[in-house]
Amino acid sequence: MDVNERLEQNQNGSGPNLKPDEKRLYLGTFRERVILAIKASEVGSEESKTVLADKLKAYPDATLLIDQNQAGDDYIDYLKLAIQSGNAYTLLSNNEISKQTTDPYAFVLAAKTAVNIDNINL
């Protein structure tokens, strides 16, 4: 492949994508950046809200990624937690559902850089 062709692909956003399956699974971020991941089946639990509130306080620079399709109407409660704690958030309404799991993630709290946390689930 020609260097100019590769540069043009990257400018258009059609170049090679690094770990696309991993990014699809974790709502657009890499596994190494995930602080907490909440599955769609866990969305309504009080435990998930409590744990998320604690993690938001512990990681004030982290961003809460919200898949509205997986979270349903409950996304509002989690969004309020992010707003109250001053954390950034991103609403993903057209997120491609991961084919890697039958219970995809509805919320992912992600850092800007690698944090390499072993246990990211509730």
TrEMBL record:
The family database entries (InterPro entries) matched by this protein are listed as: DUF1694, Ribosomal_eL30-like_sf
In residue numbers, the region (Disordered) covers 1-22
Q: Sorted alphabetically, which Pfam families does this protein's record hold?
A: DUF1694 (PF07997)
Give the matching SUPFAM superfamilies. Answer: YueI-like
Q: Which Gene3D superfamilies match?
A: 3.30.1330.30
Name of the molecule in the record: YueI family protein
From which organism does this entry originate?
A: Fructobacillus papyrifericola
